[in-house]
Amino acid sequence: MEEPVSDLINHAGTGASCCDVGAAKRGKAGTLGALSAVFASACCGVPLVLIALGLGGLGLSSFLGTYHWHFTGAGALLLAAAWFVFLREKANLASAGAEIRNARLTPALLAVATAAVLGFGGLNVASALGLGSKAQEIRNASSGSSGKLAQVVLPVKGMTCVTCEWSIEKALSKLEGVAEAKASASEQKVLVRYEPGEVTLERMIEAVDSTGYKASMPDAS
Q1: Which CATH number covers residue 138?
Q2: Are residues 98 and 138 in the same domain?
């Protein structure tokens, strides 16, 4: 027996509505995933772009670094919401015998966002805790000379994340006579190895200050 035309219309209407709702929620999951990646990487990605373009002296990295935990936290919350929306909709459609269109695209985007959140978050945690050989080296370093190179440890205020370190290191490495620069947010110091007579401490401090942080003369020891 044929179904009434009204039932066919209702079924068709229901199917279209389900697809529309599914598409909307998939769109939300993808949007949340993208936003989470943007928020999590803003304090690190934007300064890195500025550094690569030679614009680290604008001081924006210092501003973003101050609020890096806020960006990372917002990114993590958005990411959790995105995964929840996606997995819930996938389960709802699966129970109805349907599949999500572009089923690989959204989880791939969310995976990239997850990697961004975990990657930048992990780097910042390691920087804040002083993990790694660089922080240990700066912790044990002192001003003095070693062969043709001299080294100095400058106190720096305002470093809060790993890109703070990169920005300062990049600014110092551009100076004529500076052979190496290593900064540590946990120690609030930067170790500079340089050629005596080629660059002054005042010039180094100016270079650090140009990035938005505040350097000072080495501690008396």
Answers
A1: 3.30.70.100
A2: no
Residue 208: inside a domain: yes
The torsion angles phi and psi of 126, rounded to 5 degrees, stand at -60, -40
The residue out of 113, 129, 145 marking a domain boundary is 129
Instruction: List, in order, residues 6 or more apart from 50 with CB less than 8 Å away.
Output: 56, 58, 60, 61, 167
Q: What are 173-212's pLDDT values in tens digits?
A: 999 999 999 999 999 999 999 999 999 999 999 999 988 8
Alpha helix ranges (H) inside 56-180: 60-66, 68-95, 105-129, 133-140, 162-173
C-alpha–C-alpha distance, residues 63 and 54, integer Å: 17
pTM reported for the whole predicted model: 0.69
Number of domains composing the chain: 2
Q: Are residues 193 and 123 in the same domain?
A: no
Residue-by-residue DSSP string for 79-97 = HHHHHHHHHHHHHHHHHTT
Decide if 29 contacts 110 (C-beta within 8 A): yes
Q: Would you say 131 and 123 are in contact if contact means Cβ atoms under 8 Å apart?
A: no
